[in-house]
Design goal:
Length: 284
Amino acid sequence: MKNTLLKISTSLLLVLFFSCKEETKTENKETSTKSSISENYNISILVDLSDRISLKKNPNATMEIYQRDLGYIKSVSEAFTQHLKSKRMRQINDKMQLFFNPEPENSEINSISKDLRINVTKDNASKKFLNSINDTYSLKTATIYESAIKDDKYIGSDIWNFFDSKVQDQCIDKNFRNILVILTDGYMFYEGTQIKDGNLSSYLTPQLIKQNGLNTNDWEKKFEKENFGFIKTDTDLSNLEVLVLGINPSKNNPFEEKIIKAYWTKWLSEMKITFRNQKCRLAF
């Protein structure tokens, strides 16, 4: 199962990163390929270190959630290094980084995450350095997850606040292809950020979905008519591509996964994170 997941996630990310740039009708395949190779990537990974990764609360006999996350991260780093190796040396100016929000109280995790902020330029892009990136990301992210699980102190993940106050400064750079990969089960909850505005909210939990009456066959009509969703952040993120990976809905509601996707799709669209093809710009 694990090897299958890694193959699927690697294939997905390679397709997303290399093949899904929007093309005009006048572009031919050769021009598109050259453009993709010469792009400068600015890849950010936002990790939800909430109790979704807890082995006690969410055990999975087939494959633990943290192992699935590590598979996705491995795929991202491999796509990144493959992109670097496809470029001419003088063209290389690419970045990859990993974030949490809020930062864990564990100082070891914060220290390791700083080591995962990689900036590769023509001045440091040695063969040895490029070949070390995948191992560095695999080993250090495994240590982060193992440490978080061992601590067993999950303070939640404030994804909404990250978009509201940090994503513009931390994940978007001019003249880069900015890609944010979010590893989450799709729910949002942080004790310090619980905002409601009518049927809009800064959080989403199985309890809220049930409370809102979105656990019936006509949930979609109710969702649209009564304007449910996440509160829109006042930010123009049209220069950002987002991949949401790891959606893991509660089994108590057969419509839960579709509802989670509806919340995210509406929210990201409102922030001008545009996508012509959902499989290219928004992967669940």
